[in-house]
Every structure is written in structure tokens, then in C-alpha cells.
Bile acid:sodium symporter (Bradyrhizobium quebecense), 300 residues
Amino acid sequence: MPRGPTLLIIGVLAGLAFPALADSVRPLMAAAIFVLVLGTFLQVDGAAFRRALGRPLVSLLLPALAMLACPLAVGFAARGAGFRPELIVALVLSVCAPPSTGTAAVARMLGFDATVPLAVTLLSMALAPITVPLIAAGFADLALDPLALAARLALLVVGAGALALLLRRQAAAQLARHSRTIDALVVASLLLFAIATMAGVRAQVAAQPATALALAGLAFACNLALQALGAVLTLGPLAERLTTGLILSNRNVGLVWSAMGAAVSPMTALFFAATQFPIYMMPRLIELLVRRERKEKASS
């Protein structure tokens, strides 16, 4: 059976190849995100999570880097490169979103420590109602409702966190016995979400194939640049550097997308969809890099 990272690629390609499948699972996207966050809360060690929150790198630097430095840097770089205003808006809005709720699950899937991405994601979500509207107004002249953003995030995080806390207190032994089942549910949720993100994309690609290809290339370039930035700025083992790269590069664009509503232009919508390809395809490349490093260490 294919491993987790390979399943993500299968999911996103299946959603693109079978539009009816993507459309049918789209209504389940919110439930899939909830299960992702819940499963990650259940799998992460509580003491390790609290220790991670006590580190300035995790509690201050990485959230500020993700929510302020990265979107501003991408925006000014795109302006300097002479990109069209509409494309600059799409780039900035995609990067000002908080890290993806699935990042911690992907990190765990790759054998990395999931506590840091979970902590940074939660702290970034707390910042999002402040930073996202400000950056959207500055670069795109858009007015996003901070209270609506906060409500969406609170419903997701507080709901999943409260349920996880209840389950940990009332059924800790059962959770330990069924850890593999929880892992499988998280992977299934990621797969479902990957398929759902492709709803409507096939028609957009068919209508504008050249534009879609260019935007996909730009999405991969932006994702790789942010992954490289995270790896360069992080000291320590390869796993920690790659984890930071995942945090900075994989963004919850669906949150900004839903907050914008009818204000989303066709170009921005197509770019938002294109950002899903590197999010679900790059973990396979990261897995290969990690395997190679482990083999080199084992042979030395």
C-alpha cells in the first residue's frame, strides 16, 4: 500500500482527474480539517507541546516570520520583479494565510516532531485576525472582517482542542491502544482534503491551460523558496530545518479564500488552487531527502 506522502499525491491527482469525485467530497472539507486538528492534538505529547511553547523560537520568532515577514517579503519581491498587480495580490494573500492545519500531521507522517508545527500553527492562527486583514488592506485594498476570521479559527481550534482534552482524560488507555487507527484517520482526512481542494480546478485548467500552467509553476517556486528560507534560517538537524520549511511554505489559503467571498478574482482563485499542488506533492520529495540522509548516516 502507498505510504502517506504518496497517498497525498494520489489524492490531489485523483481530484484533478475525476472532477465529480472532487465535487462530491467538497462538502466534507470542514469535517476533514476538524479531524486533522483533533488527530494531531491526540497524537502530540502534552509535556513536549508545553515545552515547545516555552521556546522563543516557537512562541515568537516563527509565528512572526510566518505571519509578517514572509508575506511582506513575497509582496515586495513580486513588486520588484514587475509582476502584474493581480498576481501580486494572489501571491501575498496566499502567503499571509496561517500555516496549514495539516502541517503537523504531515510532519508526523514524515517522522518529524509534530509539536513545533502544531504550536506555531496555533499561535499563527491567533495572529491571523490581526495580520491577515492588515496585509490584505495594504497590498490588495481589501477589507476582511477580523471577527469573522477569529470566529472560524476559534470554532476549529477550541472545538478540536476541547474534544481532544476530554478524550485524553476519559479514554487515555484506549487512545494508546488505538494509536494506529488515529494515524490512519489523520491520513484519510488528509487524502480527503487533498481530493476536495481540486473541486472546480479541472474546469479552470481547461478554460485557461497556459495561465494554469504558469500559476502552478509560480506556486511551486514560491513554496520551494519558503521551504529553502526555513531550512536556511533554522539551525540543527535536517529534520528540524525541513519542519520549519513546511511551516513557512504550506498555508491555509482556504481560510483567506472563504473570508474574501465574492471578492476573489478568477486569477486569485486559480492561483489559490495551484498552491495545493506543492503542498501535497512536496512531502514525497522531502521523504526521499530524509531517507537518503538516514542511509548515509547508517553507512558511515
